[in-house]
Amino acid sequence: KDLSSTKVYDDIKELFQTLPQERNWDGRWLCQYKGFWCPVRCFRPIISSQRHFDARDTDILLASMPKSGTTWLKALIFSIVNRNNYSIDQTPLLTSNPHSLVTFLEFNVYWGNDNPDLESIPSPRMFSTHMPYELLPNTILESKCRVVYICRNPLDQFISHRHFLLENKLEKDAEPLAIDDAFEMFCKGIHPFGPFWDHMIGYWNASLNNSGKVLFLKYEDLKEDIVFSATKIAEFIGFSFSVEEEKLGLIEEISRLCSFDNLKSLEVNKFGNRGVIQNSSYFRKGEVGDWTNYLSPLMAERIEKLIEMKLKGTGLMF
Ligand code: A3P
Question: What EC number is given for this enzyme (predicted)?
Answer without folding.
Answer: 2.8.2.-
